[in-house]
């Protein structure tokens, strides 16, 4: 859970400090970095920073938008790496504190569920990693937006999720993107009393987020191919085929192996004990509930939240190889399942029907 990604952070920094002679449009579309032949990105960054002589070459990374560079480059101009990480940690703590304050101020009864889900993400590790921070910021800001604006109409919710899909594709490095769908979607479902409308929202909002996410990604390849007169789809689709192939090192990968790989990251004694205590707490409250006779209606109310909790597993099925290899950070998708189930239990199973 606490593992950082120095490899990808080094790539991000190498992308940010690149100063080649290519035209601006080409650099924006291809996103070059300089590496030392035979060395990993971490070592290349160290050598580059210390002006070590050696056999260098340029690498392009055209399949992503690399939107994080819009923020990272100015920060590197003003601060050193340690300062940026300190700022990153401070801003994230401030956002979490503001969310919890706003939840308390607005009498939002799911603050405990939110805290438990956030802890599953390991915010300490996120604050020290550039790669893990991008979607984390988008998720936190979307939660703040929903708490501050009383989004009730389906059209407003879909507009928000569509834009979140676009922003996720722009900023993210394919880490755990579903948090920008799952967390705001759960908060929107919490406001809905009709389970049939809630189920429809799960489908429509997930679909519109996917359209924004995939459309923005494809937009990079289309725009880049047009501006550079070069087919960027070859690299992008080639890598996509690898990530979705359900094969690794010439061996078939099963969905249960993928789930097991991701689950074992959170298979830690403190988390197991916490889950047991939470389960005991909910079971005790459910037994003491005065309106358990309306069990069917409560289960129907719970259905949309169950559907949201299954979204990460659908992602593991689609991006099978990626989730199998990079399980040590893709496990964070499971926090969506935790948040959806906890909020669903609180809203539908333990709260008196309206």
Please characterize this protein's 3D structure.
- With 354 residues, the protein is mostly helical.
- The protein has two domains: 6-60, no CATH class; 69-349, no CATH class.
- Helix content is 71%, strand content 4%.
- It has helices spanning 6-17, 24-30, 41-49, 69-78, 81-105, 111-121, 123-127, 130-148, 154-171, 179-190, 195-228, 233-243, 255-263, 269-288, 295-318, 320-325, 327-330, 334-349, and strands at 32-36, 56-60, 247-248, 251-252.
- Helix 9 (154-171) runs antiparallel to helix 10.
- It starts with 5 loop residues before the first helix and ends in a 5-residue tail after the last helix.
- 36% of the residues are buried.
- The model has no long low-confidence stretch (mean pLDDT 90).
The chain-level structural class is mainly alpha
Termini separation comes to: 40 Å
Low-confidence stretches: none
For this structure, the quaternary state is single chain
Topology pattern, helix = H, strand = E: HHEHEHHHHHHHHHEEHHHHHH
Radius of gyration: 22 Å
- Largest sheet properties: 2 strands, antiparallel
Describe the global form.
globular
Number of helices: 18
Q: Which percent range fits the helix content? A: over 70%
Tell me the count of domains: 2
Beta-strand proportion? under 5%
Number of strands: 4
- The overall pLDDT average reads 90
Placed side by side, the strands forming the largest sheet appear as 1-2
